[in-house]
Design a protein that fits this description.
heterotrimer; A alpha/beta (about 290); B alpha/beta (about 375); C mainly beta (about 140); A: about 290 residues; alpha/beta; Rossmann fold; 8-stranded mixed beta sheet; B: about 375 residues; 2 domains; 5-stranded mixed beta sheet; 14 helices; 16 strands
């Protein structure tokens, strides 16, 4: 190991205050995620994005479901709700409708949002609910040990797919666009700055916004499929992802011989559920 | 949109479902997230029309699971919320009813019971979800359930349900049935200031001092709502008073005891029964909902024959009035439970009677109401 | 399957990072000196590592564009090797380590402003990184 240069960095433990610590529940750090898990990176991007967007932090509510990603709500120093598996989106719907001043963000995993929560995902997109959904896709059910999920690529191994997954996975941006989302983007956790910019751009927007983050799961997915550590997966994302803004999400599926297509696919403001409610109901009543 | 549209004071001729919707309106409901299911659909329909009149929001969710969660979210956003369903939807709502209990969220769930199990008899009455009301969600918990027996009562009890849920920070169930839901009777809606509507106790503490699940003698924590700067974290995982998940036996003991004690310690304030002809009663009919109206007739027939029958009508079914039954068991000869099922509340009566009095059941599979004559037969049996 | 071909499972974390040649980038090795390097002053930064929070993933070491960091030989309480700045004079306080670290265990603080206040144009629309948003840490 190269030790010729004398390190000059200040290295200390409890006395240092991380610049993001005001938006984190430092009394719960270090968090439970594995070494080289990509969730922490996504969270740092979210915190920076929140700061940059200029939104009042007291107006932000984060709702998560169950899973490793679901634990995000517990680490953010914002009004946060850790609800049941798959039901973060309807909970967020009630929250957003009851209090229009709130900027509601759903931050949950691939299984939580598109498997058990799939119905809620497509209907909220259809209604163009004013919530932002961050789907962290690590291709597996990490918290419970690495089961196959609706985004697990074909031939990947999982604890419930010991012979290799043979079900065709969801293409989340395509699903979101088809269901009616008004902002759809996908980034990997390696594209930190672009991810942060995407989040900062989407946060103040209105309508159903979906950002998919492809992130490494070293302990469950990578280990089962002999893909190495989180760092190996980041290197893989570097070599195998391409940025194509405005690409047709139909071609953005992750599997057989495609690259991981990242970028912003859909960005069109459409009237939200509340706009239609006001227009079609409240105005008719003369209110 | 005006507040004067909220309480339709006056005399009306309403179906049970519509009266229930009016009860919700009168109690201050601002959010309804529901899914149509016979025989409760009319509640949703009426709410879709009435809520926007006061600036509230009605949303037909994609399924019952979404409905249950949306009302919890709306409650945390600061609004009073409710939903309605029947048997199959009630089963779907169970997991998230548990979430509502653990998060200590005030909300109201109306179950217009129908014949079950499974798809059963969508358009006919039943009362076979009563045990499910208490035990339907997994884990140990306590919940409050009321059982109206007429459109007037369903109006009154829906207001009562909202009040209880706001007071005790727990989802409250209105366990009605298709007969009451679809019957049309006179409903008198009092003026708004006579309703006695109660709202949740918001904390007076400042952000930083407030802990979501810190409580005093009454076991009821103060509430907040999202967006007020408290930056709370609440979770369905077992949590401590900070709201943070703590996965160990000690916290589990603390939390479960608290959820149970919150209702059990305040039981005597929550439980309500109606006693009819109880002074000299030797046989006590225990009933609730539509069955209580038929049982009343059965009681009258028995009295005509000289049998000293009284009736204990349960207004609040859960928490169960165990101390009342225990007290009565010392004095009376027998209990006769009349319900549209094969023995659910009857089991509670038997448990509490402790063998000191006979326990009889007049069962019914549902689809119709009892025959008063059948009730009379069992009363005669019980009186021997 | 393109996705899974060609990757070798490196289960052991520590041994891999210290070879400068094993990079994910295809061009960073050939880091050339900018033509106006003598006339333009780069910003300077200082690295702060919250040792006990580090889980030794190596992201910061790998992706620091100035090769400032390496994993140290010392252990923290959990047995991980936290990073240490071996070429701190190279640090320009770009903030990448802070952004990529999944553990909130490292950040850089700007100690000297450079000539160029705004970073070069970025591909995605959106606000550019503002270095002054980061608070001064207390040591």
């Amino acid at each position: 190991m190269n030790k010729t240069a004398t390190p000059t960095a200040t290295v200390s433990t409890d006395k240092l205050q991380h610049p993001m610590s005001d938006l984190l529940r430092m009394d719960r750090m270090p968090h439970i995620w594995c070494s080289s898990c990509g969730l922490g990176t996504g969270l740092t991007c979210f915190i920076m994005a929140l700061r940059e967007s200029g939104i009042d932090e007291n107006d932000v509510a984060v709702v998560s479901g169950i899973g490793c990603t679901g634990r995000v709500a517990g680490y953010l120093n914002l009004d946060s709700f850790h609800t049941t598996h798959g039901r973060a989106i309807p909970f967020a719907t009630g929250l957003a409708l009851a209090n229009p001043k709130l900027r509601v963000v759903v931050y949950s995993g691939d299984g939580d949002i598109v498997a058990i929560g799939g119905n809620h995902f497509i209907h909220s997109a259809r209604r163009n609910m004013d919530i932002m959904v961050i789907v962290v896709n690590n291709f597996t059910y990490g918290m419970t040990g690495g089961q196959a999920g609706p985004t697990t690529p074909v031939t990947a191994k999982a604890t419930t797919a010991p012979y290799g997954c043979f079900e065709y996975p969801f293409n989340v941006p395509y699903l979101a666009m088809a269901a009616g989302a008004s902002y759809v983007a996908r980034w990997t956790s390696l594209h930190m700055r672009r991810l942060k910019n995407s989040m900062a751009e989407a946060l103040p927007k209105r309508g159903f916004r979906v950002i998919e983050i492809i992130c490494p799961c070293p302990t469950a997915f990578a280990r089962k499929n002999r893909l190495g550590t989180g760092l190996d997966l980041l290197k893989f994302y570097h070599d195998n992802s391409i940025i194509k803004h405005g690409a047709d999400p139909k071609e953005a599926d992750i599997g057989m011989s495609n690259k991981i297509i990242c970028g912003k696919f859909v960005d069109e403001e459409r009237p939200t559920f509340r706009d239609f409610l006001t227009q079609n109901v409240h105005e008719k009543l003369g209110g | 949109m005006a507040e004067d549209r909220r309480v339709l004071t006056g005399e009306h001729f309403l179906s049970g479902d519509h009266a229930c919707a009016e009860g919700g309106m009168a109690a201050g409901c601002m959010f309804f997230g529901g899914y149509p299911i016979t025989p409760s659909t009319e509640i949703a329909e009426r709410m879709s029309e009435r809520l926007p009149e006061v600036g509230g929001i009605f949303i037909q969710m994609e399924d019952e699971l979404a409905s249950m969660n949306s009302i919890l979210g709306a409650s945390w956003g600061g609004w009073k919320s409710m939903t309605c369903t029947s048997g199959p939807g009630f089963s779907l709502m169970m997991e998230n009813l548990g979430l509502g209990v653990v998060l200590e969220t005030p909300t109201v769930l109306v179950n217009i019971q129908r014949g079950g199990p499974s798809t059963g008899l969508p358009t006919l009455s039943g009362q076979a979800d009563m045990m499910q009301a208490k035990w339907g969600s997994h884990g140990d918990y306590e919940i409050i359930a009321v059982a109206p027996n007429s459109p007037q009562e369903i109006f009154d009890f829906t207001v009562k349900a909202f009040n209880l849920s706001e007071l005790y920070r727990v989802p409250v169930l209105v366990m009605s049935d298709e007969s009451v839901g679809h019957m049309t009777e006179k409903v008198v809606i009092p003026p708004a200031d006579k309703l006695g509507v109660v709202s949740r106790r918001f904390t007076k503490k400042k952000p930083g001092e407030y802990l979501p699940y810190e409580f005093g003698e009454d076991e009821i924590p103060d509430m907040v709502k999202a967006g007020d700067g408290y930056r709370i974290h609440v979770t369905g995982l077992t949590h401590d008073k900070r709201g943070y998940p703590v996965i160990d036996a000690e916290t589990q003991d603390w939390m479960v005891r608290h959820l149970i004690n919150k209702i059990q310690k305040n039981k005597r304030k929550i439980i309500e029964v109606e006693e009819i002809n109880m002074d000299d009663a030797e046989v006590v009919i225990v009933s609730y909902g539509i069955s209580s109206r038929v049982a009343h007739r059965g009681m009258d027939l028995a009295r005509e024959q000289g049998i000293k029958v009284g009736m204990l009508r349960l207004i609040v079914v859960w928490p169960f009035c165990d101390y009342i039954i225990r007290e009565l068991a010392e004095k009376v000869k027998a209990f006769v439970t009349v319900e549209l099922n094969f023995g659910q509340i009857a089991l509670e009566v038997e448990r509490c009677a402790g063998g000191k009095a006979g326990c009889y059941l007049v069962p019914h599979a549902g689809g119709d109401v009892h025959n008063p004559e059948d009730i009379l037969e069992v009363i005669k049996e019980a009186a021997k | 399957m393109v996705m899974f071909r060609g990757l070798v499972g490196h289960i052991i974390f520590v041994t891999l990072w210290f070879e400068p040649t094993t990079r994910g980038y295809s061009g960073v090795k050939y880091w050339r000196k900018p033509l106006d390097a003598d006339t333009v002053k780069s910003p300077r930064g200082r690295i702060y590592v919250i040792k006990e929070q580090c889980k030794g993933c190596g992201f910061c070491v790998e992706y620091c564009p100035r090769d400032v960091l390496e994993l140290s030989q010392e252990f923290n309480k959990k047995g991980y090797h936290p990073p240490v700045a071996v070429k701190e004079e190279n640090c320009v306080s770009c903030g990448l380590c802070e952004l990529i670290c999944p553990e909130f265990a490292i950040y850089a603080e700007l100690i000297e402003e450079g000539d160029q206040k705004e970073p070069a144009g970025e591909e995605t629309p959106g606000k550019t990184e503002k270095a002054d948003k980061r608070e001064k840490a207390e040591v």
